[in-house]
Amino acid sequence: MTREVDVAIIGAGTAGLTAQEFVAEKTDNYVIIDDGPLGTTCARVGCMPSKALIAVANNFHKCLFFDEYGISGANALRPDYSRIMAWVRMLRDEFTDGVIQEMSTFTDRLIRKRARFIDANTLDLGDERIRARRIIIATGSKPWIPERWQPYKDLIIDTDQFFELADLPGSLAVFGLGPIGIELGQALHRLGVEIIAFSRRKTAGGLTDPDLQTYAFEHFSKEMNIKLGTADIRRRLGNKVVVGCESGEWTVDRILLATGRRPVIQDLGLENLGVELDDRGMPPFDPGTLQIKDLPVFLAGDVNGQKPILHEAADDGTIAGYNTTAKRISCFKKRTPLAITFSSPDIAIAGLSHKELTTRGVEFVTGKASWEKLGRARMILGKAAGIARIYADKKNGRLLGAELMAPAGEHMAHLLSWAVGAGLTAARALTMPFYHPVPEEALRSALGQILKQIDDPAPDFRLELCQKKGDS
Amino acid sequence: MTREVDVAIIGAGTAGLTAQEFVAEKTDNYVIIDDGPLGTTCARVGCMPSKALIAVANNFHKCLFFDEYGISGANALRPDYSRIMAWVRMLRDEFTDGVIQEMSTFTDRLIRKRARFIDANTLDLGDERIRARRIIIATGSKPWIPERWQPYKDLIIDTDQFFELADLPGSLAVFGLGPIGIELGQALHRLGVEIIAFSRRKTAGGLTDPDLQTYAFEHFSKEMNIKLGTADIRRRLGNKVVVGCESGEWTVDRILLATGRRPVIQDLGLENLGVELDDRGMPPFDPGTLQIKDLPVFLAGDVNGQKPILHEAADDGTIAGYNTTAKRISCFKKRTPLAITFSSPDIAIAGLSHKELTTRGVEFVTGKASWEKLGRARMILGKAAGIARIYADKKNGRLLGAELMAPAGEHMAHLLSWAVGAGLTAARALTMPFYHPVPEEALRSALGQILKQIDDPAPDFRLELCQKKGDS
């Protein structure tokens, strides 16, 4: 049996569902194909349940400071791991149920099978075929266990499994201090799990600015047990596992693998598309149109191998949805980049990173902000901490990007990425309101430092003159 | 004895000290005169110590939800009022000590006396006179007890006295639900003080949008005991006091008076300036230059009778400092307005308020955002709550202002005020990054609603097209 459709979407995750919204406005004749668990990676095993666990951990952590300011009895507080995990799953189920309920309108357009390309217009689903004018690949990414660690699979927890744990292990080795490693590692540490984390480099949460990398690594090293080195699994020890790096060996209950995700492209039959695949098996695609070569096939979301960031996956879905239903294929600009790691303090990159600026050879100046002495920061975090580096065009002070680790950093990062996106210069940003007392105030000194380093003369005054009569 | 100076600044608060910074760059020959407590209203009795108390109260309040997500033992937590107040004072002293230490460079330019105008260039300090080329009045504002309540003064606590309390009263009537009333009232309620609050109108925290006013009033009424009516003091009852409004009488230990502040202008001898004073005793002044008529006298900070907002007082100080030392008097633009009440959720007005837009007869459309169903909002607040109204120019969708009560509202308000200040339209704002999951996401639906109501055609797409070749 062959079903003829206008658009076939492979994958009912964030990118696929966003594409579906767009496609469904143009045609009823589409299918969305997914044989995996529904509800999106973010809601099932990603951003949402992790934020719930982090909220519990940080609220519990704040109680450490209770005695200091006059609330007694905090030493009687006990985290009940199984109840915490049950609560996280309850919230998680609300999020995924919400997603799945909205899918009821798809009726028989949702096909719970595995798709494999026969050619660029045809998918084999086993017992049926789909012939589609255009196809969107939105199969996402998933955690990946290297071959040599497969024998220890039962001792390894990845993010697909983590939120299903009925209880938390007493001790846990965290491999990798990227966003997932530092978010979950710190949260579990704060809940009392004995954590030993490994990082190959002095950095955390995806930071690229050397100053920030050192600051963040040292900050987290004071709170948690972090080893600098290449982590490996040495051997089993009864129910436990011995892990190690260059500087020693440690026995832990389990390993949390947070070393990265890989696009889900195996078994998709991409080799039947008739284009050359790279050494990871990925076809070439245009990041502006998401089109694979000149084929009627589009690659949207985490599957494209770029950063697994939800709002970018959703944008991809929109672009793919547009381009599979429009007469003419269009190229779209990416939003100003924004990546946030929900550690405490938050880590974020807004606009261009230090590495991107350096790689591109941009001439930029840097302003530095610190929350180390900000009274309000102490109230938010329990103690004051955090720094930011803001980058601006050396010529005119136009803001290009920032890296930061800061109290309320998720919000500082939004403000800075919008300032970059709106094309503000440092001088212009200094004319914007900064309320008191807020963490945003710390950004001012960074902006002021930028003014002193740029080629264009700085205004001698941080308020704008009234318009003279006759000015438009 | 008469001392001749270039600039005399009356008042060593935020406005006066900011003016001093500017003046000191131009001349050594200035004086700053203050006979009151040093350290600024904000750091002594205002924004800073209140934020410390609010942080304690909100952290304690969060423990109410601990059992729900698996942390046991929260019922053993006890707030020790005297230790909490001592901690708040300790922080407060750090803030004020910091301010006072920076004043050591003033040496004999700081005069701890009371100043009174003899004429527009001459101040009488009792045992000496100051003759100044230019004078800045930066005497601030203070809480005010109406004449009829003076007999109950010993039962009334105002913000000048509040932070000196060794202990907290068991029950407290809060008169007024403006920023101070709702901030302190809610914090004390959350710490277990029995609060009965009075508001003459269904509003809170300075909101002007009728939808927001109702929402906020009803939200706080669910948490706290709030009476709609005109509060009055009825009589003493032993050590206590009977307060009432149209709907009844209640006996409380003390009254927190939060009905507003008044400029400190009595005894300044403003009548000797030779300009007509209004019925509050205020001289006329130009809000752009801060100059009083054509006199060499400038009015900076809370004393000008506008909103007591620190960053605006500091801007006033800068303008007055500039205009007292520059050859030519300049007019400066105000920053985009931003007012934040640190209740939970935060209340804020960013850009123009609903009332200002209506008064000015601006043609605007409104987009509505809600945090009521946002998962992340529940994690931040304990439960999801909050709404926003964003106002935009009906013609082109340019953002004009917003009122909100929202989780992380202080940060939503910064983002929106910067968007207003940068001149973004709703369409442009929608091309900015919104990470997931963050409270900022809720703003998107408000922006989307604006697009549907404006005269200019909305783009059918919330991403920008790539620039075509040849575009600059």
Polypeptide structure, described:
Two copies of one chain form a homodimer. Chain A is an alpha/beta fold. Chain A has three domains: 2-143 and 262-325, FAD/NAD(P)-binding domain; 147-259, FAD/NAD(P)-binding domain (3-Layer(bba) Sandwich); 338-453, Enolase-like, domain 1 (2-Layer Sandwich), CATH 3.30.390. Chain A has helices at 14-24, 41-45, 47-62, 81-102, 159-162, 179-190, 210-223, 310-325, 354-360, 375-381, 409-421, 426-429, 443-453; strands at 2-10, 30-33, 71-72, 78-79, 110-111, 116-119, 122-124, 129-137, 141-143, 156-157, 171-175, 194-199, 225-228, 232-237, 240-245, 248-252, 254-257, 261-263, 297-299, 338-341, 346-351, 364-370, 387-393, 399-406. In chain A, the strands form five sheets. In chain A, strands 1, 2, 5, 6, 7, 8 and 19 form a seven-stranded mixed β-sheet that branches. A five-stranded parallel β-sheet of chain A has the order 10-17-11-12-13. A five-stranded antiparallel β-sheet of chain A has the order 20-21-24-23-22, with helices on both faces. In chain A, strand 12, helix 7 (210-223) and strand 13 (225-228) form a beta-alpha-beta unit. In chain A, helix 1 runs parallel beside helix 8 (310-325), helix 3 packs antiparallel against helix 4 (81-102) and helix 3 (47-62) packs parallel to helix 6 (179-190). Chain A is globular and about 70 Å long. The interface between A and B is large, with 89 and 89 residues.
